[in-house]
Design brief:
alpha+beta, 28% strand, four-stranded antiparallel sheet
Amino acid sequence: MTAPIIVTALFGATDFSALDALRRAHFPVERNVLRAHLTMFHHLPPSVERELTGLLQDEARGSRPQARLASLINLGNGVAFSVESVELADIRARIADRFAPMLMPQDRNPWRAHVTVQNKVKPPVAKALLGQLSVEFRPRVLELAGLAAFYYRGGPWEPIAAFAFGTGRKIVAPV
C-alpha cells in the first residue's frame, strides 16, 4: 500500500520537549496523534522515497541551520509559533526545485514555517491560549537537529528515515 511522504525538520531535545509539552497540553486529545513537528512538505509521492532520503541525508551533512521561534500565530481555531530560518528555507527550496513537477498545491505555495501547538478548538479557546502564551513569549533561538521523512497513512506517521544536521548520520525521529 502506497502512502504520501511528509518531510519535517527535527528539533533539538530541549526544544522538542517544550514544544511537545505545549502540544500535549493544548491540542484536543482525541485529535493529537502526532508529536510537535515542523512540516517542510505535506505530500510527496512515495515513488521519490529513495531519491528524497538521499537528498535529505546530503542536506543534513551541512551545518545546522540557524533558526528562531519568531512570533505567535493566531490560527483562528488554534495557536502556532512562527519559525524563521533562512538556511532551512534554502534547504526546502532546493528540495522543492528537485521535485517541482510532483508538488501538490499546498507544497507549491510559499512556505510559512510554523509549529502548531493547538488546533481544531473553538476560537475563544484559541484566543485564550494566545493571550496566555503572549504574556511570557519572547522570540528565541530554536535548535534544529535534523531532517526526517515519514509515510502518512491517516494516523500517526510511519518513520522512513531521519538524519542529523552536521553529520548526515541516521537518527531516530520522534513519532
